[in-house]
Write a structure and sequence with these properties.
The complex is a heterodimer of chains A (109) and B (157). Chain A contains 5 helices and 3 strands; from the N terminus they run βααβααβα. Chain A is globular, with a radius of gyration of 13 Å. The termini of chain A are far apart. Helices cover 83% and strands 0% of the residues of chain B. Chain B has 4 helices and no strands. Chain B is rod-shaped and about 95 Å long. Classes of the chains: A alpha/beta (109), B mainly alpha (157). At the A-B interface, α3 and α5 of A face α2 and α3 of B.
Chain lengths: 109, 157
């Protein structure tokens, strides 16, 4: 198994938004369940490229990435080894790892 | 000392003073230009935060789904502009600015934003949080600007 790359803008949406499927078709829950988690199951490492979208809301990012810990039992340590987030907007990268870290801390308590 | 040596020393001092004067004037002019650039950047940031608040108000109040979607995209667009301005200012002003922006980002896009179950009773509360977070970003930049450029001079003390 090798590294898979997900281009969010091409493979999911240029205007992602919302936390749950009930919030709309391009929600964080849809992205995680339909694209991100399946890729993590079939690949050693997954690179998520966040460029070329209009932007990301915190609820979308938290549900997509924090949800990996909350809903799929993944850990921060495991994701550090297997998940790569690339973006020209470094702010999102730091937010994503914060959401994963927060979800990991909550899962431990 | 011969007269020619005296002339040489005096003219050298004259050139030295002239060069020093040019250096000081140039430095001051550069300082003024930099100050103007920073001031313009802070004013642009203020205008963009105002536009974000306006787009967010439209997002909260719009009942027409197409107009509401347009307002949602505008919120993202304005947030993107602010983030780019913060990226530029943060190395100059410091990490505190990024922290303040993160609070604004979470206030705008967290909670019920992009949620179908958005509760109307929380609208005012959410908007107040965003206004406060926006003010805190601007306050951080203004405090930096005043500290850097409005220091009390010795003769004003």
């Amino acid at each position: 198994m090798a590294t898979s790359i997900i281009f969010v803008a091409k493979e999911f949406s240029e205007t992602p938004g919302g936390r749950f499927r009930s919030d709309g078709p391009k929600s964080g829950e849809s992205f995680r369940e339909d694209i991100l988690y399946p890729k993590l199951q079939s690949s050693d490492r997954v690179e998520v490229n966040l460029d070329d979208t209009l932007g990301y809301g915190s609820s979308f990012l938290e549900e997509s990435f924090g949800g990996l810990v909350r809903n799929h039992g993944m850990t921060m340590a495991n994701l550090k080894e297997r998940l790569i987030v690339t973006s020209s907007r470094k702010f999102y990268d730091s937010r994503i790892w914060q959401y994963i870290s927060d979800a990991d801390a909550r899962a431990r308590n | 000392m011969e007269q020619s040596s005296i002339v040489l020393v005096v003219s050298s001092i004259g050139w030295g003073v002239a060069l020093l004067g040019l250096y000081v004037a140039n430095r001051q002019a550069n300082g003024r230009e930099t100050r103007k650039e920073y001031r313009a950047a802070l004013t642009t940031l203020e205008v963009t935060i105002d536009r974000l608040l306006s787009a967010f108000r439209a997002y909260l109040s719009e009942s027409d789904s197409i107009k509401c979607e347009h307002a949602r995209l505008m919120v993202h667009s304005e947030l993107g502009r602010i983030r780019r301005q913060i990226d530029w200012l943060e190395p100059i002003i410091g990490k505190e600015l990024e922290r303040k922006f993160t609070v604004l980002y979470e206030a705008v896009t967290g909670g019920d934003f992009e949620s179908k179950s958005r509760a109307s009773k929380k609208v005012v509360e959410d908007y107040n949080k965003i206004v406060t977070a926006g003010e805190n970003v601007l306050e951080c930049t203004e405090v930096w600007f005043k500290t850097k450029y409005h220091k009390p001079r010795w003769r004003q003390r």
